[in-house]
Amino acid sequence: MNNDKHIYTIFGASGDLTRRKLIPALYSLYVQNLLPDKFIILGAARSPLSNEDFRNIMKESILNSNEIHDKSSAEEFLKHLYYIGLQYDNPNDYIQLKEYLEKLRSKFDIPGNTIFYLSTPPSLYKVIPVHLAAVGLNETDDGWKRLIIEKPFGFDLQSAIELKDLLLKDWKEEQIYRIDHYLGKETVQNVLVTRFSNGIFEPLWNRNYIHHIEVTAAENIGIENRGGYYDSIGALRDMIQNHLLQVVGLISMEPPSSLEPLSIRNEILKVFQSLRPLRREEVAKYAVRGQYISSVINNETVKGYREEKNIKPDSKTETFAAIKFYIDNWRWGGVPFYIRTGKRLPTRVTEVVIHFKPTPHFLFTRKNIQEACNKLILRIQPDEGMLLEIGIKTPGAGFEVQNIDLDFRYSELAHQRIPGAYERLLHDTIRGDNTLFARTGEVIEAWKFLTPILEEWSNNPNVPLYGYPAGTWGPKEADNLFDDENQTWHFPC
Ligand code: BG6
């Protein structure tokens, strides 16, 4: 895989994602010498901007980002940025785009290698690729062409299938990179390494030793300025369909036969194919939804979801979702998985908690059985690390047991910077490595699994939407997903 000379075209270049994530990530690659000696970043969007305007906006975003920057390297980097205004649905504009790309190529001696990043509203995923193909910008005779698509890929099973069929008419599967930024997180990739590089975990990583598994992605922010998008999407589509199911895939997959992209992706696909389908009448038992309501946090009143900008006053969109499910295969038969996500929860944390079964017999004094179960906590963010909870003897007379933590934090690794998720993934799109990108089959299977929940939530008026005060851990009804009344979610501090 090479760092070929190329043009990185970003549609939606005047948008938030380009400013906040994509350009700072590309800049960070640039200062680390991870971009080729010849490259152009071409912004494309509806706004009529000049190259200078575009460079100035991006300069600010680079200098405001956390990326390693110094003024002179930023200036040098900005010289690689160009801009073209276009109407996404106007075929003539794509002819102009093609001509402009050719002009840039010949000026800077760059072959036809081109990336098209769709950082646009999802409705345009059906529009831009078709127009690009109509002018031959999907053709690979003069260099590779790659199409990067943000989530959500489709809105439900039907629309995802339609989008897949539409794209595959003009683009080959290996040209399409479905980006899921969770897969770009170092700690998410580390799930694979922890599992398959340590002889001590894998023998225990199954139904014989694991009692249940939890995945939590909590956010303390609300929906910020994304009301228009969020209200039509909700937590299940925004976080679970993609990010959290991908994490589940890595936790539960079989060892891949190699690190080849297909080998890894195939194992994840098998997990998704083994998700036990839910019947609509079971949804209430296995899924809980909530929506935050106004509350006072640190003496400040926080708005409820329905009072936020661009939200319908009677919106039924969930800002919290929790589900319990099973993976019906030999490794996981009978092991419950619990996943939850929500906005306006008490803190920002994403973690995986592996709860091991207790010892077959309690020899020592224990306060309660819950404490007798070892836990392995993979802290995805923000305090990246790993923690193993084990019992030791309480010093003194007798044999009382107490739990202690074997705790590792990435911050303890001297001089090891954790690259941002977009930085890693954008680099992979340039190198042509699609290991960390979701493939069609996975996306379709994920939608298939969630369809009964989506249908039930949108069509059955009797399914409760629980209100939870902003700043709390979501509806208490989410605790009822556990069969055992002594069991509850792990609440990270
Ligand atoms: C995005 C969602 O994909 O992920 C957002 O659309 C969410 O709603 C974000 O806030 C969370 O990402 P991270 O990296 O902060 O966990």
TrEMBL record:
NADP(+) binds at residues 12-19, 46, 151. InterPro entries: G6P_DH, G6P_DH_AS, G6P_DH_C, G6P_DH_NAD-bd, NAD(P)-bd_dom_sf. It catalyses: D-glucose 6-phosphate + NADP(+) = 6-phospho-D-glucono-1,5-lactone + NADPH + H(+). One of its GO terms (cellular component) is cytosol. Residues 10-190 form the Glucose-6-phosphate dehydrogenase NAD-binding domain. PROSITE patterns: G6P_DEHYDROGENASE (PS00069). Keywords: Carbohydrate metabolism, Glucose metabolism, NADP, Oxidoreductase. Pathway: Carbohydrate degradation; pentose phosphate pathway; D-ribulose 5-phosphate from D-glucose 6-phosphate (oxidative stage): step 1/3. One of its GO terms (molecular function) is NADP binding. Substrate binds at residues 181, 185, 219, 238, 343. Pfam families: G6PD_C, G6PD_N. It comes from the Bacteria. GO terms for biological process: glucose metabolic process; pentose-phosphate shunt, oxidative branch. The active site is at residue 243. Catalyzes the oxidation of glucose 6-phosphate to 6-phosphogluconolactone. Belongs to the glucose-6-phosphate dehydrogenase family. PANTHER family: GLUCOSE-6-PHOSPHATE 1-DEHYDROGENASE, GLUCOSE-6-PHOSPHATE 1-DEHYDROGENASE G6PD. This is Glucose-6-phosphate 1-dehydrogenase. It comes from Melioribacter roseus (strain DSM 23840 / JCM 17771 / VKM B-2668 / P3M-2). The gene is zwf.
